[in-house]
Design goal:
The protein contains 17 helices and 20 strands. With 457 residues, the chain is α/β, with parallel strands linked by helices. Helix 1 runs parallel beside helix 4 and helix 13 packs parallel to helix 14.
């Protein structure tokens, strides 16, 4: 392969560099940022003979042109330097696609969708492991894909379970899962993908390349899309029952008389499942479909269902203080995910929302706020914008508190005054105005909640 340039000194970029270096490639990582934390990472990688250029954009000229450019997921696919590279015939791929080149002989389960990806991925991984299948999750959950590829060189896997975002799909032209799952589809990431049609095309391309395809038939967009769909090997799910399935019942996974039914077989009573919310039942059915297609026994699936409690930062119960539940839903980074999260918890609720606002339709979210919230505490850049939206809709029970610490402390005060049952962090925003990612935001919420409980003791 020769000379490789990598854009982005994050988890994915570092993982790509390490596997390429192991394959004796000449690797240079470029990152336009130049912070003290990145300097520390640079020093560590230099010890491994990986060149890191901070505060620089990669050069393209006839003398230094690389044989390959690998792009981290956070780097837009249409920036000028990448478009120029493609015009010059330089192979340009994403980190996920690079991992596929090393792992293509192992069957993949690829999970994509606007919401529900992480929980479905975690469920699939847990079911396969319970069934004795050697697997690990990667992508937006677990390992960076190239880290998993590097580990598998000495310790081969039987299946790869990958949460794959639209950012990763658009830079992965050959990645072809054995099983593809499409969880939901609503407007998101339009600042990057420009149009809903382009966003749909990117998501659909992964399913088109998947041998077996699982789609959530309860999602309105996917249901309508499926009415005219001529794909083969499509499996549909529905929490509403078999009469709502698209396609043959033999390829359906659904609920009937409070039981999970997969391909006309009873799997387990749904009462075993501990997670709240109809959306999590949808995630459960899609995971069950994938697990059965991968050869997992009914008993292993039932055992997983009874023991699975969820994933961090998605409707995660952190603590109870004075009878009030403090719930971390930091992964709700858009209106639809936040509306689903709010709809899943008890009321009256105190909501913490805000961050870096995204485009989208906030109507259902605001309507649910009106129904369930006695107060909304607003943080981050979006606070003033949300306040304007609330005022326009006739909702006035909000406060701009700016920071997470202020929000949690004020939430506790209001919970006592307003007899709230829940203080819910469900931001409906990206995190990048105040945090590196939604995980850091959720961990900050967790720590502040723990600090409050320590003060009580």
């Amino acid at each position: 392969m020769g000379k490789v340039y990598i854009i982005g000194l994050g988890k994915s970029g570092i993982a790509a560099a390490k596997i390429l270096k192991k394959n004796h490639e000449e690797v240079t990582i470029y990152d336009s940022s130049n912070s003290p934390s990145l300097e520390i990472i640079k020093n560590d990688l230099t010890k491994e003979n990986i060149v890191v250029k901070l505060g620089e954009n990669l050069p393209l000229n006839n003398v230094q042109n690389p044989d390959l450019i690998v792009v981290s997921p956070g780097v837009p696919w249409d920036i000028p330097i990448l478009e120029e590279a493609r015009r010059k015939g330089i192979k340009t791929i994403g980190e996920m696609e690079l991992a596929w080149q090393y792992l293509s002989k192992t069957p993949w389960i690829g999970i994509t969708g606007t919401n529900g990806k992480t929980t479905t991925t975690a469920l699939v991984e847990a079911m396969l492991k319970m069934g004795g299948i050697k697997t690990s999750a990667c992508g937006n959950i677990g390992y960076a894909a190239c880290d998993l590829a590097l580990e598998s060189l000495d310790n081969p896997l039987e299946w790869v379970v990958a949460e794959i975002s639209s950012y990763q799909i658009e830079s992965s032209m050959d990645l072809s899962p054995r099983i593809g799952i499409w969880t939901t589809f609503t407007p998101d990431h339009l600042a990057r993908h420009k149009t809903l049609e382009n966003y749909h095309r990117i998501k659909a391309s992964l399913l088109q390349r998947s041998h077996l395809k699982i789609l959530n038939g309860d999602d309105p967009y996917l249901h309508n899309f499926g009415l005219d769909l001529d794909w083969k090997n499509v499996y549909w799910t529905s929490v509403r029952g078999k009469e709502y399935l698209l396609g043959d019942i033999e390829k359906g996974v659904y609920l009937e008389d409070s039981w999970i039914v997969a391909f006309k077989e009873l799997i387990a009573p749904v009462s075993l499942f501990k997670m709240v919310g109809k959306h999590n039942l949808q995630n459960l059915l899609m995971a069950t479909a994938a697990a059965r297609l991968a050869g997992v026994s009914k008993k292993a699936i039932a055992d997983t269902i009874s023991s699975f409690t969820g994933v961090p930062h998605r409707l995660e119960l952190i603590t109870n203080i004075d009878g009030v539940a403090y719930i971390n839903d930091s992964k709700a980074t858009n209106y639809d995910a936040a509306q689903v999260g709010l709809d899943s918890v008890a009321s009256p609720t105190i909501l913490i929302a805000g961050g870096e606002a995204k485009e989208g339709d906030d109507t259902a979210w605001i309507n649910t706020i009106k129904e369930k919230c006695v107060s909304v505490l607003l943080i981050g850049e979006a606070a003033s914008f949300f306040a304007e939206r609330f005022e326009a809709s006739g909702f006035g029970q909000y406060e701009i508190v700016e920071t997470m610490e202020n929000a949690v402390k004020r939430g506790r005060e209001l919970a006592s005054e307003l007899k709230a049952k829940v203080v819910l962090l469900s931001p409906a925003c990206a995190s990048f105005d105040q945090y590196q990612n939604f995980e850091q935001r959720g961990e900050n919420f967790r720590q502040i909640c723990y600090d409050l409980t320590q003060k009580d003791n």
